[in-house]
Protein 1
Amino acid sequence: MGADQVQVVRTTKELRAVVKDWRRAGDSVALVPTMGALHAGHLSLAEEGLRRCDRVVMSIFVNPAQFAANEDLDSYPRTFEDDMRKFAQAGGHLIWAPTAGEMYPEGFATRIQPQGAATGLETDFRPHFFSGVATVCCKLFTQTLPDFAMFGEKDYQQLCVVRQMVRDLDLPLEIVGCPTIREPDGLAMSSRNAYLSDSERKTAVAIYNVVSEVARKVEGGAEITAACRAGAADLAAAGFREVDYVAVRDAETLEEVRAASGRPARVLAAAWLGKTRLIDNVAVGS
Ligand code: PAF
């Protein structure tokens, strides 16, 4: 197999056979779950996997269960050939690319309904989302049985929900949270940035500036509700058409934080720029 090529498996049976051979040889295994359209953020997860393990599996599956009927499942960017090349060049070992029928066969009827870290924020606007994410991640974990799975802090609530699920269900792997990778101006890398027009792309960085500014204010002792309200107004003034939330939450439990408590906190925001919904977050005191 050349430097631009990587093995691809399409069935759980094939995946398990490959992983079983690696295990027999004593190799450790990392999983990087993705929906493809790879950018430097995904590749940094693969690199972290390679630092920790002998073998890295990347799943590429645009998961229908986490999209509502009015969302972008059909238009979500699909760049499989390019993704294979990038993952191979990064030194990855195997792409796990099931079809929807392989992941959710006829008669599939079990869904995970996470609570706790899944309460509020994204769930207030995408009520179906974390059930879809948790269900597919649980399946990806039990299909692959990795030692570690890498998740970006860019989707911070997702990271917390998956960590909680692994803890609650005693799944035998460790979740590794990896720092958000940003464009030179600070915009968090995301496959959905491809939807932005040139002028929206220039405006988009305001979401990073706003969460950073709210974090600075909270760190400096500002009143949290006022700082979040000012952040939302700044996003609207920058050209965002709708602000879903600007919030400060406990960095581990994602419970609401109304006043500084000494525990690590996170500022999270979601807002619409034209037809694109952007999310971002930073640590208070980072
Ligand atoms: O973050 C994503 O790309 C997806 O939500 C994930 C974790 C691959 C589950 O489909």
Note: The two ends are 43 Å apart (CA to CA).
Protein 2
Amino acid sequence: MSVEIEVSARVKEALADGKGVVALESTIISHGMPYPKNLETALALEEEVLKKGAVPATIGILQGKPIVGLSEEGIHHLAQHAKGVQKTSRRDIPLVCGLGKNGATTVSSTMFFAQKAGIKVFATGGIGGVHRGASKSFDISADLTELGKTNVAVVCSGVKSILDIGLTLEYLETQGVPVLGFKTEKMPAFYTRESSFFCDAKIESIEDLSDIVSAKWKLGIEGGLVVANPVPAEYSYPAGEIEDIIKTAILELERFNITGKDITPFLLEKIQSVSGGKSLESNIELVKDNARVAADLANSLAKKLREKP
Ligand code: PSU
Ligand code: MN
């Protein structure tokens, strides 16, 4: 059995030419959105990155093979046959690859494969975090420890308020992960532009972002960074409405005995079905915006590396 990471020709070439490359995850495709919106979104994200002159690399596992730069056919498969696709975070990689299964990569495993391929920037919707009630359940996403050790900058719209935003920020501090608000001082809460919590700093330009990212890695400080980019104002969703939906959904977790890795997909699905698609639209638009910011950041970092390697 050979388990090797396959990097697509387009991504290999872009990296060799010193172009900006943006990693994209696949759990958002298989377990974060319903078909066919998930497929349309996955393809639209690649388009957004290409329009900026950077190269997208959607990451996933097909028949046990980790692929960095999935083909359109591969993306179709992960979108359409989600039931046969395992949600794969870092600890699931050996099982999915060892047994030849199909896997959708979460933030943690996407970061892992991105770093192996030499990709420095990754765009997604929201990262996992510390769940509400974690002091009892210990439910803390592997995304946070991955951010502590893997050198990839993750552009996202903060964390969903299904999580405890304050505790998530505390945990990121413990892991040594900078949380940079892009044109915002407040930590975004996914569907809404602001939470009551503060980012480490408000960063006004892509140039400043890429200087901070470069400084971290030039100094040999291992680990990632969070670039928190709020949902575009016209697509933000009223905070109060979301809070009511989340509270009901959390109560249902107990009623249906949902635990472990199934919690996040269950809550995402509930919010989408109760809000009647309105939240899905804001979800799609915020990820597209994150893909654009990530492409700008990847291009800026690539340019700096070309100038002074
Ligand atoms: N948050 C979202 N949408 C998502 C996820 C999180 O708003 O699709 C996915 C991401 O792939 C993230 C994962 O890495 O859920 C976290 O899962 P868990 O909470 O089980 O660690
Ligand atoms: Mn969990």
Note: Residues 25, 27-28, 32, 89, 106-107, 125-126, 128, 141-143, 160, 190, 261, 264, 268 surround pseudouridine-5'-monophosphate (ligand 1) (CB under 6 Å).
